[in-house]
## 1
Amino acid sequence: MSKPLLTIRDLKIEGRKGNDWLPIIKGVDLELRRGEVLGLIGESGAGKSTMGLAAMGYTRDGTRISGGEITFDGMDLRGLSERRKRGLRGKRIAYVAQSAAANFNPAHRLIDQYSEGPADIHGLTSQRDAAQDARMLYARLRLPNPDEIGFRYPHQLSGGQLQRAMTAMAMSCKPDLIIFDEPTTALDVTTQIEVLRAIRDAVRELGTAAIYITHDLAVVAQMADRIKILLRGEEVEEQPTREMLANPKEPYSKSLWAVRSFEVEERPVPTDETPVLRVHDVTAEYAQGIPVLENVSFDIHAGRTVAVVGESGSGKSTMARVITGLLPPTAGQIALEGTALPPRLAQRRKGDLQQVQMIYQSADTAMNPKQTIREILGRPIWFYLGLRGRAQEDKIRELLTAIELDPNEFIDRYPGSLSGGQKQRIGIARALAAEPKFIICDEVTSALDQLVAEGILRLLKRLQDERGLAYMFITHDLATVRAIADYVVVMQNGKVVEQGPKSQMFTPPHHPYTKLLLSSVPDMDPDWLDRTIKTREEA
Amino acid sequence: MHPLARMILHRLALGLLTLFAISLFIFMAIELLPGDLAEEVLGQSATPETVAAFRRDLGLDQPAYVRYLDWLGGIVRGDFGQSLANNRPISDLLAARLGNTLFLAVYAAVISVPLAVGLGLLAALYRGSWFDRGVNIFTLSSISFPEYFVAYILMLFLSIRWGIFPSISDFGSSAGLGEMLYRTFLPALTLVLVVTAHMMRMTRAAIINLLAQPYIEMAWLKGASPLRVILRHALPNALAPIINVVALNLAYLITGVVIVEVVFVYPGLGQLMVDSVAKRDIPVVQASCLIFASIYILLNLGADVLAIATNPRLMYRK
């Protein structure tokens, strides 16, 4: 056995909250050999990223390493001077971040950012040679136009391309270790598969060791030799990938596996009643002559959930804007219970507005941080139902109870003091406050961890059963579709490519695009990536 | 057409419109001034006949809108009219004075802009340190005193007590560059002290504002040194606010120097304006105001164009 490349012993990291230092990592061990890939998984707040950064001897502002050892290739990273650590970073340990769009400097061309490490900072090679290397790596990572793409600015590339360019940048100094911090989380499934493949091939060819951080078990199954599960700064268990998948030991690990079991039984579309919402032949555009939606039609019935699926840019969110009246369609109409709605928000009556409510992806930004829960919920109750004082208070308490939060505890709190799942529940309560018939759920679970997301889905389902609500569920996640939908609308480039009941959508034959989407969702099977790539190359 | 070129044309057109509105505003404001020009110029003892003749000569008997249109028509042809005080063409008067004002402004800008941006960058680099606090305290105190106070303090020490620099800056028409720089050092220094704080604090804030950005963390993780992080990764993205605050201060160096020019008896545009107001030389006041306004508009236009030109997201479309 060779000497380990990275050894972390009993690592403790603290984060500052006001005047106190609270533990984030509570004594975790980690060992990594050359060429080995370790998957680090857990929910948000588990300390995955903190761990990953600590492996570079780096801590974010407001955090500090309070105990333990970090040894990289025989060097004690905690004892090293800042200058020596700078000499390692980028050169021998590199980092690939979650959002490549935010982690590339918008002011410089990709190729200059690539060669900055090897040529300018670490002096390993000349600008010219670095640029030559970049082209080869870009080609290896399957970026289009590898000879020219480097001369573009970050905003000129798509998210998937940027993520690959960032992987190339991390490899620019041929490091011994790369930390991948959720590199595909922000990508569509069809793009994710390409990036996963590029990363894995590059890691294998260069023999680089890697720590792969993610919350997605199926993704980590493709990438890692071993998997370590973290929960609130502590290790739950670590095992080789196949054993972990086949036989997780700890109850928490098992619960992670069980998440995907929630599934609503499909309810048939009623044939003889007027749909709550009818989207009829809608075409819409932002700039004249360039339609973002083309001839879209579908119905949503009371007590049913219609999932609208597609990649980013397919027109899902634009659909929501058209239905709510924020973007008047250029052709077609939206009908609420058989009556056409005025196309513009400003022309709609209060009664129309009341019936169509919305829950947003990011509960963080969708609520005023300076308002208490009482104010956030009180406003729609007063606006739509005209309730004030005691009656309003009772209604708020009833809503909080309905979303499974204790009114006494939460009514006077601010959104900032709530967890992600709790905030999203308040988002749901705010939509319910209007007593609507129809709610648009725009990627409501995609910012949440799997366990929390499942709780939200179950809550939505229960509220639907109790109140006969119709949902339009916008999502790019097919697992969510499988869990909650009765009826599925698949969109691509602003057009509906296929629609039908869930059972029909998940059984072949599929439309080619639906097939591509379905086959791009990773399975909990370490051989899935190889198999899928092989099938696609044969086809 | 390149989007930048179109934007410049668009903004120039808007600038002209603004200038037109300003000309109207200046004219009306001066109409509202109390007192009668003819009586003021001719003195109390003038007979009503001479006053009337004087008014006819200058067209003061015409209604206001006719005089305004005359004035505007002249400006469009490049003719600002004649000074009432000495009957010289106003454009000649302005040219010499504007040259002096620009000289002083450029002098102060050449010192203050690099100084302010440099200090701002260093303060951001060493934020929270004694250097940062020291720079902040010094620049804040220099901006907190009125400029004539700063001017008199400098004059007291550098000129009267120690006799290093002259307290009167008028360098005549035959001085060489060295002589000019020497004679105008005190007013230039006063201006530097007044404008540096604003630009320096804005630079510091703009840089620090960016330090929480993910791409800054990325730069650290690539092993970049602190200086490199600030200069190469933060500064290019902070240029827009910095350019804007620099433009604002350059405009101030030209249009806001009236007091400094008066204190140091410097023959600039500001002093000309003050003198002309005292003498009721209305055409000169109007022309000076218009020049100040144009400079203001041009500098702001320049700042906007530069801010766009340095932003790849606006220069290179998808």
Note: Chain B is about 75% helix and 0% strand.
## 2
Amino acid sequence: MKTIELPRKSLTAETLGFFRFGEISPGRWVITNDAGEWEILSTAEFDALLAGTIETRESLTHKGFLRTGSDLDALAERVRRKKHFVGKGPHLHMVVTTLRCNQDCRYCHASRTNLDQVQTDMSLETAKKVVDLAMQSTSPYLCFEYQGGEPTVNFEAIKFIVEYSREKNRYEGKTIDHSLVTNFTWMDEEKAEWLIANDVLVCTSLDGPEELHNWNRTWRKGSNAFEQVMRWIAWFNARYIELGRDPKLWHIDALLTTTRRTLSQYREVVDLYVSLGIRNVHLRPLNPFGFATRTWKNIGYTTAEYLAFYEQALDYILELNLQGEEIMEGTAALFLKKMLTPDDPNFVDIRSPIGAGTGGVAYNYDGAVVTSDEGRMVLAMGDPLFKLGDAASLTYPEMVGHPTVKALAVASYLDSLPGCSTCFNAPWCGVRPLHNYMHTGDVFGQRPNTAKCAEHMTIARLLLNKLDDDPDGDVRRIFDRWTVDRPRQ
Amino acid sequence: MAETATFHYDVDARSVGFVIDEELYSLDAIYGAAYLFVDRCWLFLDRPADKQVQVRLRSKEAEPAGGTLDALAGEFANELLNQVLRLRIGDSTRSLREYTLARAFFGDDDGERPNIDDLLAELDAEELADDPLEIQVPWDTGS
């Protein structure tokens, strides 16, 4: 038998407001509350806070960590503002205009068909039903995001949805954005001019330098997908300028898919994005399910490998910012908006409860309504658990009140989840019930066993430690800039 | 001088075991601490006697490196103390928190308080003013 003796911290609980806490690095403690307020304290300060002997600090009182003098009504207003998305209704409507695609990417395993499979195009009749359902959302802001397959292969459906929703919106009065995620291999000038004229935001897939991009994104034999992407980024960006659009507001954005080959090339990837004037490198790990073992061996990695890559890439991006470049990391920016502003960016995958069905909805080419684009992939793999119904017959109350939507909300409400309810990261984090389901058959899963828990805890700790070790305020100035959104209109 | 908490544990080739007095550490604290180790250990809970809970943490590594198990025992004991603090803070602030959350989500709008859209508009105006470099225009709002 062995013995451990540990100091037991004194607690004068009646002097304290509610907070969660955690040690983010040796001797440094973060405390957080429901409004997303936080402070970092030394061990001595943390002990004094608990014991009720800490020297009164305006910030501790204002943020509600100390009971005496705190304003609960003001705190409630901040909680209300932080959770503004609750009850707003789905704003993100992901529309799969077709499953057809002319690329055969290594990481795309369940959501594409070959170009001759015209039966996987969304009909205009279905597109109309999708718009009719989406526009019943109680959210005053909607974003139609066109996905595939390669969505431009069925360009008529995109045109129809943009035009029909615009017509319908004459009576609805919502703010509507349209965004297209395209590989640019089906683009031509006629489509491009139409997209610009109709203010469709265009985002492409860009996985890194030529060799890496072309390895990830297999195209027809002898072709060069990377060259195609470069050509169209240049074309669009030049055309925006020709038309007098502000290039800081109108330029091509890009999304990166991280494969095993990306891990060692973080500098090259970031440098490429910077050279193209893209200001957001959004690093995200692969969804680690649905792959054949052989494929995963080729492109996959462990959570630890991904997080090591993430930390290196974030450090490099910060280094470039300190040299004056304007580039940010997307996932960090989402967390920073939660940490450094009174608001929440309402990113549907990182919020509590998750936005599956209540923040975002996906519409398959055949009109199947699914809780998310990942839910659509699960549907394509033969499991209908995340399907809510069909656009032709589903009503809006049925959609947002569907038992699956409720189950996902319960399974992702952090205040009720063991391990999460007491975690310092709770005001900023979000769990993924669908990932849990795919790994364990249970939408709740066990959070400490999930890659998302490791990822979100690592990111929160990295950001807090950088903010804590920032004597000149340089990091804070950079991070503050990453939290700023500018509307295009 | 800080009060000291004493923990006794046994250790074998692959696991450490504690017998915890439920009078000192509530079941919620024990469960809360144990849960946070499920990524690294297999957890076995038993009741060897009334008001006692045995917690055995079995490493998922077949042959844990030297010192790993003692470190694990220390971490678990530390977490148990933290869980007690978390529960006591939660209990002590329950009514404050209930009031705050009820006010946040179900409070009456008396017309004097700015509504959320006003607050958001105010924030947008502040943010634009603070963004001389115009660094970010979001395009992706989800997934």
Note: The CA atoms of residues 21 and 164 of chain A lie 50 Å apart.
